Amino acid sequence: MAKGGVMSCRKMYPSHPKRGVNEFHRRSALDHGKTSTVVTLSALYPLVTILLSIAFLHEKLSPRQGAGIVLALIASALLAG
User: Fold this and answer.
1) Which of 20, 26, 27, 40 has its CA 20 to 30 A from that of 34?
2) How far apart (Å, rounded) are the C-alpha atoms in residues 25 and 23?
3) Which DSSP letter does residue 56 get?
4) Residue 70 and residue 41 share a domain
5) Distances (CA, A) of 40 to 17, 27, 58, 69
């Protein structure tokens, strides 16, 4: 293990460097924040893909989907605060 008890990204995921970097950031966040907040906010990663598809691919959302995104963003703001 490296200094501070964090494994290097290469040892965790040698064939997938991006996964290793993501795991490193998740572990760093867990070291500095509450587990309940970090895990819940990291589960919202599909929102980034959805927002990018709206911006670049001009995909349309139904009102129900839009409401879900808005509620998820409000929930993440409440959790982070």
Assistant:
1) 20
2) 5
3) H
4) yes
5) 24, 14, 28, 15
How many residues comprise the chain? 81
Among 38, 28, 26, 46, smallest CA distance to 80 is for: 38
- Kindly state whether residues 16 and 44 are assigned to the same domain: no
**C-alpha to C-alpha distance for 12 and 62, rounded to whole angstroms:** 40
State how far the alpha carbon of 57 is from the alpha carbons of 32, 45, 49, 70, in Å: 36, 18, 11, 20
Structure tokens at 7: 């494994």
On whether both 26 and 40 belong to a single domain, the answer is: no
The verdict on 28 and 39 lying in the same domain is no
Q: pTM for this one?
A: 0.57
